[in-house]
Amino acid sequence: MDHHDMALSPDRRISIVTRMFIFAFCIVSLGGYRLQLAGIDPTQSVQGLSASYLLYAVDILCICWAIFVFSTNFDAFIRVFRTCLPLTLLPLMALASSVVSVSPQLTFFESIKYISAFIVPVSAIIIWYSGRSNQFSYELLKCILFLSFLTIIFYPKYGIHSSFDVSQATHAGSWRGIFGHRTDLGYCCAVLSGLAFSRFIYQRKISDFFVLCASIFVVYKTGSGGANIVAISSISMITLYFLIRKESKSIRFSLGTILASFVLFVVFTFVSPGDILSMIGEDSSFTGRVPLWSYVIEKGSINYAHGLGYIAGFDLVVGPSMQMAGFNVPNAQGAYMESLIAFGIFGPIIILLLHIKHFILMLKFYIDDKSSDELKFKCFAISTVSFFHILTSTTVESYILQTNKILVGLIIVLASEISILSGEISNFSKIKTKENLRIADNQGRFI
Fold first, then answer.
1. For residue 410, which of 203, 144, 69 has the smallest C-alpha distance?
2. Is the pLDDT of residue 374 over 60?
């Protein structure tokens, strides 16, 4: 029986109440509804600190739940953390950087919050696949899409960036849904569009087509250049693989190389870089990132050996210097630069290894000749979406190094699902995957 044959008997399926709690914990801990829970009006500059007590209580509840799951499923936690390497080194490096931080207390406190961004989605994965066969990432993102539509329609002050917003008024008109920034919603729907597209072209379900159309529309309305790149690149690669998936490994590799070379030749010969960037909502400076990075390298007082400490390095040293130079940004606008400030040269190396790992993973399933056609396609689709999501979000955003951001959770969930499908996690949280996946595949629940 194939590794991906997992079917769960009815008595093992988790209840709808449990599913709702899992979604709620993931959504809130990874950035959803935080403005509302904190009692923050985005159009008002004066905020009362006491209004955040509800948010603190919810965060503590999420962390306590994750710790409980961790304590009762320690082996499963270790397997998932090992599967997600080198990503899971980042919270350990954040905690360790307290020793050399310019503010050990701040770094320690923020690193504990950062660790929660990892343990909550890992806990959700463990509980979900102990009793469900539906693809968790797809179900979670559909829930986010639906809730974002409701927020945009009924609470546009929270769901849409406004020119009256105290922060990020430059994004007026862009959709942010249940999140505090358009980028979070954009990346969520970009990943969802890739997953929905792969399901639709393979299974031809009308429901997946509607999800695909809705997610692409939301990506467009967010106006996020990075999200556009993820959606376009993922759908293009999945289409290519779907058309040639039955060919031999050598033919697939040759066709892929020739097509990629041809596309690059046409693009760089007949289309200017400025036109390409404008099509995805960017400009030649990557909306001001290039001069910002140049300033940090030249005058940012970076400690290349061990960094300045997680969060504290930017907030207390680099950030104030940038503000004096006219750069008013909350972070370094890129994971490479952010990790360099926090951890020294070892930070960018970890980010680079993350890129390399997921590119190799995508290539592995692209040329795979040993697995079944369905399994290869499913694993390639998920790994492709994951690779472009990681590549884009870490190159032009710092969110992978920040708490309460959905990007970290998505990477963990997608990486775990690839391992479940490919059989690398062969006995996941008391469920023997080798004995149980066929019915789920036949019913089209887990792609």
1. 144
2. yes
Banded model confidence at residue 140, pLDDT cuts 50, 70, 90:
very high
Asked if residue 185 is part of any domain, the answer here is no
Domain that holds residue 54: 10-140+247-442
For the chain, what is the domain count? 1
The pLDDT of residue 426: 47
Burial 165-186 (b: 16+ CB within 10 A, else e): beebeebeebbbbbbbbbbbbb
3-state secondary structure at position 13: coil
Number of helical (H) and strand (E) elements in the chain, helices listed first: 21, 2
Gap between the Cα atoms of 238 and 385, Å rounded: 9
Residue 181 located in a structural domain: no
Rounded Cα gap, residues 213 and 197, in angstroms: 9
Q: Give the integer Cα–Cα distance in Å for 417 and 389.
A: 15
Asked whether the CA dihedral 361, 363, 366, 368 is positive or negative, the reply is negative
Q: What pLDDT does 46 receive?
A: 53
State how far the Cα of 420 lies from the Cα of 417, in Å rounded to an integer: 5
Rounded Cα–Cα distance for residues 168 and 57 (Å): 27
Pairing of strands 427-428, 431-432: antiparallel
pLDDT single digits (tens) 290-303:
777 777 787 767 88
The span from the CA of 339 to the CA of 152, in Å, is 34
Q: Are 87 and 332 in contact (CB under 8 A)?
A: no
d(CA 5, CA 422): 10
Type of residue numbered 380: F
In a domain, 89, yes or no: yes
Identify whether 221 is part of a domain: no
- Residue listed under structure tokens 């972070």: 331
Q: SS3 of 428, please?
A: strand
| H/E run at residue 431 | strand 431-432
Rounded to whole angstroms, what are the CA distances from 435 to 267, 371, 407, 431?
A: 48, 17, 32, 9
Give pLDDT tens digits for 52-80.
Answer: 788 888 888 988 999 998 888 888 888 88
Task: Quote the CA–CA distance of 30 and 111 in Å, as a whole number.
Answer: 15
